[in-house]
Amino acid sequence: MTSARHAEGPTREALVATAGETISRGSKSFSLASRLFDRPTRERAWLLYAWCRHCDDLADGQTLGHDARTVIDAHERLSLIRIGTDRALRGVPAGEMPFDALRIVAAEAAIPERFIWDHVAGFELDAQDWRPRTEADMIRYCYHVAGAVGCMMAVIMGVSPDDEETLGQASDLGIAFQLANIARDLSDDHAIDRCYLPIEWLVEMDVPPGEHMKPHFRERMAVLAGRLERLVERYEASARQGARKLPFRSRWAVLTAAGIYGDIAREVARRGATAWDSRVVTRRRAKLGWVARSWWEARRG
């Protein structure tokens, strides 16, 4: 006979433990920042990350954010994401850790479903082989794949779903993160026939879309990386304003993550044409520096 516990799926404690392992393996930066939260917020952040990470990996054919490849069954993968997410939001145990994690955190934190489905819409854009034409298109994509996650995290940290100003600033932090990713991952994305730079930007630089990572265009890509870095700074500044409204430990975590990820964009811009010769990372010593600096900034409110 199947036990009631087995029928209901793993316990919350087990889900949190597995989600914690997932974030520690999938993102050392987010894992470090998440440990600055109080325990309830930290656990919910881990649960949300587990779902986001799983959906991203499924959509991109990768493992814990690495080794992305071109997928030939993108719409089938999107369907799995949609079905699993819908079941989770209806409270149905999935027997799959990421969707059960979403089921728990969405109920506990009362995350508005609009943000969850906005995030799923980002995977739909990739499944359609969508490319941004304008800067506004790129920012819209960044909202779906990361800004919506910022909104969900804000709700987890206690921000009211009706506080549009603070939610917008939380979204800006996610957008800043994604812009940094775009700058860092230009070469990796090109390898799987993706490009998140606006076509208008490439045309302005007289670079044929699809050929932007050829060696003789690297100097021009460095110019665009600088442009991305300036956008990161703008969105990061907005997020830092929003962080002032958060409880101390949440503010500390957010400011730390903002600094760590901002350093990625700054380092890409600093390296110029050599930025994509090796993967840009923020070293542990620099991360710990942001932990310390952000503590002081968070104390000042």
Describe this structure in words.
The chain is an all-alpha fold and 301 residues long. 71% of the residues lie in helices and 0% in strands. It has helices at 4-8, 12-26, 28-34, 39-60, 74-89, 97-109, 113-127, 135-156, 164-184, 186-191, 199-204, 218-243, 248-271, 284-300.
Helices, strands, pairings?
Layout: H1 4-8, H2 12-26, H3 28-34, H4 39-60, H5 74-89, H6 97-109, H7 113-127, H8 135-156, H9 164-184, H10 186-191, H11 199-204, H12 218-243, H13 248-271, H14 284-300
Helix pairs in contact: 2-3, 2-4, 2-6, 3-13, 4-5, 4-6, 4-8, 5-6, 5-7, 7-8, 8-9, 9-12, 9-13, 12-13, 13-14
Percent range for helical residues?
Answer: over 70%
The biggest beta sheet is recorded as: none
> What is the molecular shape?
globular
Query: In terms of quaternary structure, what is this?
Result: single chain
Total DSSP helices = 14
Gyration radius over CA: 19 Å
Derived from helix and strand composition plus strand pairing, the structural class reads mainly alpha
Distance, first to last CA: 56 Å
Query: What is the mean pLDDT?
Result: 94
Unreliable spans are 1-7
